[in-house]
């Protein structure tokens, strides 16, 4: 047999099998391909449709998937062309992250929003502080194109130097905390609370001075309990142990022997840790009263004093979440702070917002959402009186007790503390405004409108100097 004729017969025998009708294909049964109707469709009395005779030929799965892939590729191409036509402003890290955010709008032409007393919550269209701080962080600077040949891809993907270092370092062994005795320890509580009021409270007036002094006297007489007042007293003592008087360089006395000596760091920190450990054992029994929320704020301040930003963040989140629960359980009519800004919840609200924003500048973590609650629309003003007169429902039962003596803070020192407290809130708001101006349109805005950026920076500097 000829070889060519053998191959030709094989090619002729490999013909494509006839396609079954649509009914048999759906049933996955063999079709006899009888025309114009197969035997099964004739028995069942249904319409017999073959692909080559159908007016609507069906696509195979392969053709369908190819068509879908081509459609998606066309959509991606159109998106890339839109970004390219936008001048590259949205090609940056920050521009892509906030491309759905609306730009800022001024209330009126020529109106300066920096000098008024609008609250942070009034600017609902602004970018989230976390996004603003991330765009201005050192981690984001590693992604600048100028460092492409210097920085590796792994280093460019670092979100936080602090969190990355915590993952790689081993936990040091923690020595057992020092236990507090009953002897001289109770006698030192009132002294340490007065030291806290004199050195710490002026910079962050989140507690009621009169109530703290009353709590300290009760602990001295009755001993420690497992409630919020005892926890607040222990937190104040811990902060007092790790705090010393700050003396600016320009105020050094001529005779250095007269300068007060700082406390011994080792012994003071050990004692502070003992007070804090005792207070931490009482955090689990706290709820949503102002005293309980103050305890978490004080715990966060203590961690910041000892350079523990992540632990401080956990405490600030607890304070913010508990304050949000407290505000939601109150009537909205009770949300308005009085003229003297003595409303305790309002003071706690601003302290939580301030603490979250300060920590977010170093840690890329989302806030608790307390700011979106829209509680306080009034920017804080200096109170006319030096002490708080607000009373929470939890402390109403204590009104019949004797009033505490006046604290050691004079009117002038109290005023300085309040001005520092309100000024720090205003400065943080100014920083957020400046970040919005720098990053809302991406890096390309700096090159195209240099004069506008310089002018807005000058306005921000004037606001800071005014405080």
Automatic annotation (TrEMBL):
Residues 20-50 form the Zn(2)-C6 fungal-type domain. InterPro entries: EcdB-like_regulator (IPR053181), Zn2-C6_fun-type_DNA-bd_sf (IPR036864), Zn2Cys6_DnaBD (IPR001138). The keyword Plastid does not apply. Residues 382-412 are annotated as: Disordered. Gene3D superfamilies: Zn(2)-C6 fungal-type DNA-binding domain. PROSITE patterns: ZN2_CY6_FUNGAL_1 (PS00463), ZN2_CY6_FUNGAL_2 (PS50048). SMART domains: GAL4. SUPFAM superfamilies: Zn2/Cys6 DNA-binding domain. GO terms for molecular function: DNA binding; DNA-binding transcription factor activity, RNA polymerase II-specific; zinc ion binding. Coiled coil: none annotated. Keywords: DNA-binding, Nucleus, Transcription, Transcription regulation. The keyword Zinc-finger does not apply. This is Zn(2)-C6 fungal-type domain-containing protein. It comes from Penicillium cosmopolitanum.
């Amino acid at each position: 047999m000829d070889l060519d004729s053998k191959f030709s017969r094989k090619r002729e025998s490999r013909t494509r099998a006839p396609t079954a009708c649509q009914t048999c294909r759906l049933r996955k049964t063999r079709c006899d391909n009888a025309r114009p109707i197969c035997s099964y469709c004739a028995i069942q009395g249904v319409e017999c449709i073959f692909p080559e005779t159908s007016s609507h030929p069906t696509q195979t799965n392969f053709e369908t998937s190819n068509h879908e892939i081509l459609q998606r590729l066309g959509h991606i191409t159109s998106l890339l062309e839109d970004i390219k036509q936008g001048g590259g402003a949205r090609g940056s890290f920050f521009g892509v992250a906030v491309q759905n955010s609306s730009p800022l709008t001024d209330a009126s032409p020529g109106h300066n929003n920096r000098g008024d007393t609008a609250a942070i919550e009034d600017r609902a269209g602004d970018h989230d502080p976390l996004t603003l701080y991330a765009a201005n962080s050192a981690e984001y600077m590693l992604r600048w194109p100028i460092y492409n040949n210097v920085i590796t891809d792994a280093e460019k993907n670092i979100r936080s130097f602090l969190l990355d270092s915590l993952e790689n370092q081993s936990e040091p062994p923690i020595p057992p905390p020092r236990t507090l005795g009953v002897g001289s320890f109770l006698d030192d509580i009132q002294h340490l609370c007065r030291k806290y009021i004199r050195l710490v409270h002026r910079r962050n007036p989140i507690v009621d001075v009169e109530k703290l002094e009353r709590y300290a006297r009760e602990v001295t007489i009755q001993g420690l309990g497992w409630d919020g007042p005892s926890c607040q007293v222990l937190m104040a003592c811990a902060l007092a142990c790790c705090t010393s008087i700050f003396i600016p360089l320009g105020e050094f006395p001529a005779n250095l022997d007269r300068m007060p000596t700082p406390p011994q760091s080792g012994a003071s920190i050990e004692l502070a840790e003992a007070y804090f450990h005792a207070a931490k054992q009482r955090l689990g029994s706290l709820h949503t009263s102002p005293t309980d929320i103050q305890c978490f704020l004080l715990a966060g301040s203590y961690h910041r004093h000892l350079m523990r930003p992540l632990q401080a963040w956990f405490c600030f989140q607890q304070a913010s979440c508990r304050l949000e629960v407290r505000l939601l359980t109150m009537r909205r009519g009770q949300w308005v702070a009085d003229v003297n800004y003595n409303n305790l919840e309002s003071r706690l609200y601003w302290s939580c917002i301030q603490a979250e924003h300060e920590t977010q500048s170093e840690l890329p973590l989302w806030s608790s959402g307390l700011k979106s609650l829209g509680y306080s629309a009034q920017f804080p003003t200096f109170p006319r009186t030096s002490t708080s007169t607000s009373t929470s429902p939890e402390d109403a039962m204590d009104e019949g007790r004797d009033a505490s003596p006046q604290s050691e803070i004079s009117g002038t020192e109290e005023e300085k503390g309040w001005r520092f407290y309100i000024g720090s809130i205003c400065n943080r708001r100014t920083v957020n405004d400046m970040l919005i101006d720098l990053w809302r349109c991406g890096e390309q805005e700096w090159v195209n409108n240099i004069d506008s950026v310089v002018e807005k920076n000058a306005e921000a500097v004037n606001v800071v100097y005014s405080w």
